[in-house]
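Protein folds are increasingly written down as discrete tokens. With that in mind, we are printing a sequence and the tokens encoding its fold.
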Amino acid sequence: MVVLGSGGHTTEILAVVARLNPERYAPRCYVSARTDRLSEAKAKMHEAEVEAAWEGNHTFTKASDGSEASVDPRYVQISRSREVGQSYLTSVYSTLRSIAEAVFVVLRFRPELLLCNGPGTCVPLCLVCYAGQFVGLGKTFIVYVESIARVESLSLTGKLLYRLRIADRFFVQWEGLTQRYPHCTYAGRTM
């Protein structure tokens, strides 16, 4: 499962996805905010490029039960936890709504991997995936890649996930951040 976000988040996370083996990491499910009009289109363009590169020969893979499962990408949308400029007080309600929607997404797709890089939409998904391991949904490996724009400090999303220790791997793209946040791993530039 890949969380997309407005601004440069989608471009950055798709650069990470481009480095993944499309057969190994399939089927891919892309999650974006309902108010984000561009990210899903960018992900579809990315998937079309992947399909062209693999010549369309890989449309099925083995599911965990041994049956064939479609690897066609899925696209879903959830509400944002917090809109840009929204007050923290009203964001409590919108975050709870987003968490409820994330529960349904996680129950539907049961991701083994959650890949995200900073949009607020990823926080509810991270929380639900993390909590899911304690209620019998299985372990979702959560990978967070901080945006390259974060040079001196973590984003609000990064700070939340860092302090809560929810992400199994927490990558930064500026080496200096590892001095300030020692539980991060310097990954170099992803783009």
